[in-house]
Amino acid sequence: MAKGSREVVTRNDVAQYAGVSTAVVSYVVNDGPRAVSPRTRDRVLEAIRVLGYRPNAAARALKVGSTRTFGLVMPDGGNPLYAELAKAVEKEAATRGYVVLQTNTDSDPAVEKRKISDLLARQVDGLILATPTGEPGATELAELNDSGIPVVALNRPVRGTTSICPEYRAGARLGVEHLIGHGHERIGLVMGIERSAWSPERELGWRDALVAAGLPEGPIARAEFSRQGGYDAGRQLLTTTNPPMPVKQAKVAKLLKATERPTAIFVSSDLQAVGVLRALHEAGLDVPGEMAVVAFDGTAESEFSWPPLSVVRQPLEAVAQKAVSRLLDEVDEPVEAFTYPTELVLRASCGCN
Amino acid sequence: MAKGSREVVTRNDVAQYAGVSTAVVSYVVNDGPRAVSPRTRDRVLEAIRVLGYRPNAAARALKVGSTRTFGLVMPDGGNPLYAELAKAVEKEAATRGYVVLQTNTDSDPAVEKRKISDLLARQVDGLILATPTGEPGATELAELNDSGIPVVALNRPVRGTTSICPEYRAGARLGVEHLIGHGHERIGLVMGIERSAWSPERELGWRDALVAAGLPEGPIARAEFSRQGGYDAGRQLLTTTNPPMPVKQAKVAKLLKATERPTAIFVSSDLQAVGVLRALHEAGLDVPGEMAVVAFDGTAESEFSWPPLSVVRQPLEAVAQKAVSRLLDEVDEPVEAFTYPTELVLRASCGCN
Fold first, then answer.
1. Under CATH, domain B67-166+317-341 is a member of which superfamily?
2. Measuring CA to CA, which residue among A224, A207, A225 is closest to residue A216?
3. pTM above 0.80, yes or no
């Protein structure tokens, strides 16, 4: 038995001989999903010939019968942002003849891990992880890489994996600078709670804009990325009240700035902004007259809120297109980090119109 | 060759001998996805033995390796209603160890047909058609039935297929009766455009309530099931103005009722209601003071609109649960029509609170 086992030539042997990853061997054997350069392909075929490698035909047949499928792992398909992202991915995949298995994790790392394993077991041709909950440990990454299935992470960089992100920090700065342009000097922040150790890019962008304009930081309310979270955060920001009388000393005034009620709020997601608007309406505040609002995301829901939200729009289509391209097309670098610029969409909530 | 062909025993032969459908033969052979009663199972096994039927082992192996998957065909995953429905279906399927392939059709019958064929080719274990665009012709139904794959239609009855629907008509009536309870006598309707010949149940429910209360019909605006559609419809309803002076003759007054601006609007979907609210805000109307609104659906978006929408809530969880159960569990009747009651959720837009 031991002898028989030793004689089996594995994909790993071929990879070592040819000096490529096991994934590349798999692409050559299965004729996809990614293309391989002719030179690399020749090296792999030569290794297969020399070593006498015989890929498992049954497994291959099975795979051919069940593929042209991507797995898409999302934190919450009920969030319009992810619903729109999924739609964009599905549309892009369809142009290449692929369908998409969508699955939700409720941002639970354990659920996410189980769903990824499940999709791998189903032999999907590629895996798209939207906003993964954290950096997978070395073990999971090895499992993913060893599976030979291409993976891309969206919205959040993950070590060892290609990532495609909006320019969160530059985008947030753009939105806050627009509020500063409207004359606001006390700009609060509603910031989503990140479950990973990843740096809060949107918060950094908000701060960048304030520092560049020489303005003090307004109050920050942290909350879940949800309508309810935004509502709670909005109410919290409204409890910071203006001082009862003008403060003479400039230094004291500057120190007090952070506790004054802001005149504008930058919100880290559309969903939260909708909740913030409800809190402002309930408090009887005029938007944008008494409180201006700019949000990050730019889903269809933001256009029909009241007043219509001015937003920093995520480049969903570009992200979806790049994701599908990375899963299918030949690549020079196995791991790369891509970012796409956001776009300012001005409606009424900022004070324009 | 002809001889050999004639000797092949098909699943159809087994079905005829046992007096069951080909689908049932397939359930017995594949040990699922639906259970079969012991007595029927024995009849099928007897037929297989007598006729010497040999199911294609390769096809079966392939299927076993690629299954535990449902296909879900939706008109628009970007619509929060379908995003929430998909989430409910996925959650319910997961409890049974199944994953869901979601796909969008943009309500285009040709796209829908292509996507259904595609899912069948992928040998899904069951097909859920959410709001199918129309009654499939006899050919498609035969293809579906012959595939042996169980199918359920959601939100719309389809001849020859099990359907699971909310009680649209009774639900709409419930919502309009609530507006009547608030003292409204001129109640308009924003009605989604149905692409099939299926009767507009929500419109019938609106009329039921008005007739029962002896009230005239308010104006109707028909529009796409979208935020923009609702916005356009809302603006249209506002152009119907009140007559400049009291009309003395009751008969004339009644005839004029339909052209008067309504004091309340029943809207056939949340998405449209959000657009209607925007139109009302832009016209400077107080909601519910000058115009009350009740919508059909009850998605999360309705709770955070301004003012929060009173809604007739669809029983999404019950529908998802029944759909998965119909695809997996033993059934007595091959084709049934199920309806689930809706629920009135009262917030501010109707005049409550």
1. Response regulator (3.40.50.2300)
2. A207
3. no
